[in-house]
Amino acid sequence: MSVTELEQRLAEFADRVASMPASAELAAAEELVRDALAELGRARKRRDGGPQREQKLLRQIFRTLPVPVIVMDPGGTVRRINNETTRLLGSPAGYLIGRGFPLLIESSRRAAFRGQLNAALRGEESITFETRLNHQGRTHTVRLVLSRLRMPGEPQEMVAAVALPTEVQLTEAQHPAEAPDEALFLAAARRHELLSRLTRLLLDEESLREPVALIRAARLLAAETADWVIADVLRDGVPHRAAVIAPSTEPVARLHRAVEALPPAEAPLVAHVLATQSGIIHEMLSDESLLGSDVLAQMRAGSLLSVPIRTDEEVSGVLTLVRLRDRPPFGLADLGLLEEIGGHLGLALRAQRTFQRSSNAADALRSGVLPRTLPDIPGFEFAAMYHPGSGLRAIGGEFYDVFPMKGGWGFVIGSAAGRGEEASSVTSLVRNGLRVMSAWERDPGAALRKVNDALLAQHTGLFVMAAAGFVRGRKVRLASAGHHPAALLQPDGGVRFTEGGGVPLGFEEGAEPAAEELTLAAGETLVLYSDGLVGSRSADGAGYGEDRLTEVLARCASQPPSAVVKAIEEDHRAFAGDRVIDEITVLTLRRAR
């Protein structure tokens, strides 16, 4: 804009001020504008600085005007302020520019300001009215003059606001000098406490096992910092509504269902957050279609913020919080907190997906190496127990099996020295290989030798500790490849152990399993168990061991295998509590007659 054009605009502005009802403030403002016009005239006559000098002069005049002047866009967002405005409101230009000017107006008068702003944009005349500004603990009663500015080269019109204070009062006593700092400290402490509570909630085991993390987080946020909380998650790249929490104090069931039914993919706010992958805050809503339809108007929404649910690698959803008109609006501190919460939620959802995949994989692996039911063998009773363990050892390579064979039946229990799918494939080889070999070999030791050779040929690098038995009549042929000795519980409560031992399968070619033969009397129970049982430790570091197992078995004299298994399980739970890290497998068989 040239100096001549500026002179014209200032002259028009001076005429508008002169046409207003007389007052000392307006007279002073008119005199200042006239002085500015005179200075511009002198500058135009000199013409020694060119356009750049003119622009500097204009900026200097604007900054030093001794009345507060604010330039805002048609939406009410502050674009420029002068020095007197920062002095009046007590905040620097960097804080005020970019914020909605209506946020500075007392909440009960914001709607009236909106009407006056629209009238100024539509008309040619300046609009003058009284209102109240609330900021930094002070209330300013001001006469506000709004004038439309047509600025060449600008894509939209602006509005100039001159604020002439008529009264200033404190909104609350501030006798201690440190009161504002104390308020800021308490607000920061509340945000920290909210983040800590959310973190504890997301780390809870149930939040990993079940899809409840988003709902729990939404409920906490609704109770602490928002009226409405809406969570949307991405599925195959499309956002789907996952949770909607409504105010508990209002009958909004119909509106609640309407918000749940709205497709988030059609909400401009959700699309914007997903596209930019960054949070956004609307301290004062001017567009009530941001969530689609007119739900924000029905909510009586005053402000909202929305942040991505994300990790460093991906965005997995959008979290949106809404406050009603009668509550203080969200601020930049709230946006920063919610962006951090969005990061926590993103990590929680990723951990939940990983946990679910691991759990599903564990179920698939176990179904491949554990029998669904034990066969009915005449003259014998069976019972078995398997616990998957926890943490990184939840998916492992323990297995057991009971199967028919020519002239009798067989059983096996074992554990691969590994975890996951590779261990599962190895244990499947051993389990199924032993079943196949039992059709050709009458001795379990010979069957284990051939399974050992087959395992070595696969070059897996894993080895398996196993114990197998072939039963014909009362005779039991036992073979052990590096496994714990089996326990034999006698009807009178006596307990003795077999020899066990031997070299694990897959360790070396030609290794011979340890072998022995037992004759089971009626009422005797053979108990086979994994290292996860006797090798487990309590919270104070004590080992379970075979001595404790002996004591438990001695109390189970003459009891059926199911009761023996239950007694072992309950005793181990009392010993280890929640520290079940390794898998635990127990297989019991009893000669009934």
From TrEMBL:
Q: Does the keyword RNA-binding apply?
A: no
User: What positions belong to coiled-coil segments?
Assistant: none
- Sample GO molecular function, one term: phosphatase activity
Please give the superkingdom of this protein's source: Bacteria
Tell me which residues make up the PAS domain: 54-124
The record's listing under CDD domains reads: PAS
Family annotation (InterPro entries)? Bact_Sigma-Reg, GAF, GAF-like_dom_sf, PAS, PAS-like_dom_sf, PAS_4, PPM-type-like_dom_sf, PPM-type_phosphatase-like_dom
Enumerate the UniProt keywords alphabetically.
Answer: Hydrolase
PROSITE patterns cross-referenced by the UniProt entry: PAS (PS50112)
The protein, known as? PAS domain-containing protein
Q: What is the lineage of its organism?
A: Bacteria, Bacillati, Actinomycetota, Actinomycetes, Streptosporangiales
